[in-house]
UniProtKB/TrEMBL annotation:
Subcellular location as annotated: Mitochondrion; Plastid, Chloroplast
Database matches in HAMAP family: Cys_tRNA_synth
Principal subcellular localisation of the protein: mitochondrion
Domain (tRNA synthetases class I catalytic) ranges: 20-315
Keyword Aminoacyl-tRNA synthetase: yes
Enzyme class: ligase
Region spans: Disordered: 519-557
Organism from which the protein derives: Cucumis melo var. makuwa
Domain of life (superkingdom): Eukaryota
Protein name: cysteine--tRNA ligase
Residues of the Cysteinyl-tRNA ligase anticodon binding domain: 463-504
Matching InterPro entries: Cys-tRNA-ligase (IPR015803), Cys-tRNA/MSH_ligase (IPR024909), CysS_C (IPR056411), Rossmann-like_a/b/a_fold (IPR014729), tRNA-synt_1_cat_dom (IPR032678), tRNAsynth_Ia_anticodon-bd (IPR009080)
């Protein structure tokens, strides 16, 4: 199968371009990280996960990737928060850097090659500022150093912003010392109670924008392949980076600027400043981290992603279905370990006896995955279509395998399962959805989260299952219906398999209502951040569930 050309959307040219690297087989990528003064929210998670998918995909394509993601640990927000709490600003920022790394590990984001901090790169920052001044693009005033945008004719090339739009007192602070109101700080003179470093312009600390120019150049040189971040960083942060880097080195050139869209809440940007955000930790307390990751890649990375609890519930259902199918497949294959199976050619050099249906399934899955990923990382609906068909193939084959089959046909079924499962795992791995835990561990973790959302423990469900079983024996189907419907409204599905009743998480009949912390009333202060409002359970038929039919259909996605 011919490989698709990888095309990425370049924010600088505002079009998709074929991805080519400056050095054959190698990629240099810099992504702006967090300002470490608080727990990170799911907007931060979206940027991290989307660029982690890019990192994984580039490695999947065979590139050697140097991935740099910084921490801002010197900033006004950090100093303000430290003063409020009476904490050392570096201790505070270090604490939240570690919390962020813990969140990233939960979300299965691979560790970047380098994770530099501003406080460790003051010499590189001062050297770059010195070069900018020497080249005529910067000027010092009273211990501050500003970048002169008038000296850089191409200012605005990334964002499309025009200099005449920056009138003092509107989008930029009034400072009569500036030659142009749009001039921005490269170095800030020391203030009482703030951390500072010695410099040629007096004690002070770096401005926000210069740090990324200096650190990216330090680790990747002035010429590298990808610079990424959230769409809100295009202006002023990335625009100023372009100006600074070019001012320090005329040869500076970044091939592709990539930006992910906002996460919205009720179609309004989710951010700390607006107070309508949820931290990663708040979500993963009640949903498995794989569920949050699945949700974050469920839309194209450049599109806005509107947050709803119902979408998390749906993502949870999908992840459970995937892992249950993989677990069932593994259980079945473990019974045939001595069948001389392989992932490709057998010992004879001939093709393993894979069914034509399995071959078609693998071809379709591979083709759809390659086509979508090569088209600017189009992860939207990537786990639908051919992926879902592959899961259905596994479940239907497992059902057929339970029946007595001729030896040759049985071997074909088993080998087909091996090959289709391998292809599914490869897709999940590139998307970062293949857990380091076992399938059974992930399934149990998903069940534990469902119990937490329902406000129950497993003994509660087992007790209700006993009650329902007794009600059915007594032909009290109204009561058994109500028990099943009540649990369903809480996100717990009861399933009758033969003479046994089991349970699994499901999408609640009425989705949970999630109220941002800023909107919670004082009387709700002690409520959990994702309090469920349970509707009256609807009446229903207590028909037996056909397990094979359930698996062949799969969850709604």
């Amino acid at each position: 199968m011919a490989k698709e050309e990888f095309r990425v959307y370049n924010s600088m040219t505002q079009q998709k371009e074929v991805f080519t690297t400056k050095e054959p087989g190698k990629v240099g990528m810099y992504v702006c990280g967090i300002t470490a003064y608080d727990f990170s929210h799911i907007g931060h998670a979206r940027a991290a996960v989307n660029f982690d998918v890019l990192y994984r995909y580039l490695k999947h394509l065979g590139y050697e990737v140097t991935y740099v993601r910084n921490f801002t640990d010197v900033d006004d927000k950090i100093i303000r928060r430290a003063n409020e709490s009476g904490e050392n600003p570096f201790a505070l920022s270090d604490r939240f850097c570690q919390e962020y790394l813990s969140d990233m590990a939960d979300l299965q984001c691979l560790s970047p090659t380098h994770q530099p901090r501003v406080s460790d790169h003051l010499e590189q920052i001062k050297d770059m500022i010195t070069q900018i001044i020497k080249n005529g693009y910067g000027y010092a005033v009273d211990g501050d150093v500003f970048f002169s945008v008038d000296k850089f004719p191409n200012y605005g090339q990334l964002s499309g912003q025009k200099l005449e739009n920056h009138r003092a007192g509107e989008r930029v602070a009034v400072d009569s010392r500036k030659r142009n109101p749009a001039d921005f700080a490269l170095w800030k003179a020391a203030k009482p109670g703030e951390p500072s470093w010695e410099s040629p312009w007096g004690p002070g600390r770096p401005g926000w924008h210069i740090e990324c120019s200096a650190m990216s150049a330090h680790y990747l040189t002035f010429k590298f392949d990808i610079h990424g971040g959230g769409i809100d960083l295009i202006f002023p942060h990335h625009e100023n980076e372009v100006a600074q880097s070019c001012a320090a080195c005329q040869e500076s050139k970044i091939s592709y600027w990539m930006h992910n869209g906002h996460v919205t809440n009720n179609n309004e940007k989710m951010s700390k400043s607006l107070g309508n955000f949820f931290t990663i930790r708040q979500i993963t307390e009640r949903y498995h981290p794989l569920v949050l990751r699945h949700f974050l890649i469920s839309a194209h990375y450049r599109s806005p992603l509107n947050y709803t609890v119902s979408q998390l519930d749906s993502a949870s259902d999908t992840v459970y279905y995937i892992y249950q199918t993989l677990q069932d497949c593994e259980d079945a294959l473990s019974q045939h370990q001595g069948e001389n199976l392989s992932d490709g050619l057998g010992k004879t050099g001939k093709k393993d006896p894979v069914s034509s249906a399995a071959e078609e399934c693998i071809i379709n899955l591979r083709s759809e995955f390659q086509t979508r990923m090569a088209d600017d990382l189009n992860t939207a609906h990537i786990l639908t279509g051919a992926f879902q068909e592959a899961l259905k193939f596994i479940n239907s084959t497992l059902t057929s395998l339970k029946k007595k089959q001729p030896k040759k046909q049985q071997l074909s079924m088993i080998q087909s399962l091996v090959n289709v499962k391998k292809e599914l795992r490869e897709v999940l791995d590139v998307l970062g959805l293949l857990s380091t835990s076992t399938y059974s561990e992930v399934l149990q973790q998903l069940k534990d989260k469902a119990l937490k959302r329902a406000g129950m423990v497993e003994d509660d469900i087992l007790h209700l299952i006993e009650e329902r079983t007794q009600a059915r024996k007594n032909k009290d189907f109204g009561k058994s219906d109500n028990i099943r419907a009540e649990l369903s409204s809480l996100g717990i599905a009861l399933m009758d398999v033969g003479k046994e009743t089991i349970w699994r998480p499901c999408v609640p009949v009425e989705p949970a209502v999630l109220v941002p912390p800023c909107e919670q009333k004082a009387t709700q202060a002690e409520q959990k951040p994702m309090e469920q409002q349970v509707a009256q359970p609807p009446a229903g038929d207590d028909a037996q569930t056909n397990e094979a039919e359930k698996k062949a259909t799969g969850p709604a996605v």
